[in-house]
């Protein structure tokens, strides 16, 4: 049976020590949490909710920074749908209710962190994937490229979805806010790589033709057009 | 003709749902951390040349002590990490100050210790769940090697899942 693409199940092996449930790779038991797939829209909302201005240079300047700890806490409130723990998850208007969080917050920190780490890694592009994207995009956007063999997820998505969206428009049928954040990041990286590859050709180059006079010396007047 | 104003429909907004008595009286769930969820850090010390050396087990001439910590909940962890995270504007990075975090863990999560067995002056006290300044000073006056060992053992549970 096909899984729901809008949800992601995270399984964690656990063991019980001193009455506390700890994540444990070799643990006898398994706990499962189901999260709503982290979308571009989720990131936008959490970014807004957790960004704050910080004074720098003795108050002469201000930079905007994101409170990463609060960001992760809001991830729980926004994206956790259900789990095998005995605390029922209640949601309202797309968020976990305050009453529900009053109980959820008492979960052992290591257990919640383990769920969040796995969920976060499912929503981001790993360093290994990033390296593969860089390698394959050099081949894909190369001057004499004939495509990429064994294309990674990002390259394949860029080639297929890019064509679809060019035809049908991203904003018309597919809302960018509902787009999984991982896919958004991959496409953003691919667009960046494509721009990098295009850049040298658009920069001023030596002209392909030059005007040369008799004897081959370039002269502005009376010239003969020669191939460069 | 007199104009009769239409009555406003009665507001049907429901008051926020309060927890039922049975829910309020209900014990914490199996997965919820309570004050009873504690763990111990054991210290085995040998006195040598007027200083304390850490031993790996109890034995003859070894003085053993126990420090009891409370397990931290997810929310406590977030709050403590928030308090010990600093923003490096130059590098545009959030840096977790581990020294500050360790201090907060001791101040908020230590329950008791056995150093007060023979010296009541070392008894630790809490105010609103936080170690008093005097008690923190008593902890901070321990030998650095002992403090370092306590931090290592404490973080083995808090950060590395026991």
Keyword list:
heterodimer, A: 228 residues, alpha+beta, 4-stranded antiparallel β-sheet, two-stranded antiparallel ribbon, 22% strand, globular, disordered C terminus, B: 162 residues, 5 helices
In a nutshell, what does this entry contain?
With 228 residues, chain A is an alpha+beta fold. Chain A is 43% helix and 22% strand.
Q: Biggest interface, which chains? A: A-B, 36 and 32 residues
Counting DSSP H or I runs of 4 or more residues, the number of helices of chain A is: 7
Total number of beta strands of chain A: 10
- The structural domain count of chain A equals 2
Order of helices and strands of chain B: HEEEHEEHEEEHH
Distance between the termini of chain B: 82 Å
Mean pLDDT of chain B: 87
Form type of chain A? globular
Compute the separation of the termini of chain A in Å. 63 Å
- The domain count of chain B comes to 1
Quick one: biggest sheet of chain A?
Answer: 4 strands, antiparallel
Strand coverage percent of chain A:
15-25%
Ranges of chain B with pLDDT <50 over ≥5 residues? none
Mean pLDDT value of chain A? 82
What order do the helices and strands come in, and which of them pair?
The complex is a heterodimer of chains A (228) and B (162).
Chain A: E1 7-17, E2 20-23, E3 29-36, H1 40-50, E4 51-56, E5 61-66, H2 68-79, E6 80-83, E7 91-92, E8 95-96, H3 98-104, H4 109-123, H5 127-140, H6 153-168, H7 181-202, E9 209-212, E10 224-227
Antiparallel strand pairs in A: 1-2, 1-3, 3-6, 4-5, 7-8, 9-10
Helix pairs in contact in A: 1-2, 5-7, 6-7
Chain B: H1 21-25, E1 38-48, E2 51-55, E3 63-70, H2 74-83, E4 85-88, E5 93-96, H3 98-109, E6 110-113, E7 126-127, E8 130-131, H4 133-140, H5 144-158
Antiparallel strand pairs in B: 1-2, 1-3, 3-6, 4-5, 7-8
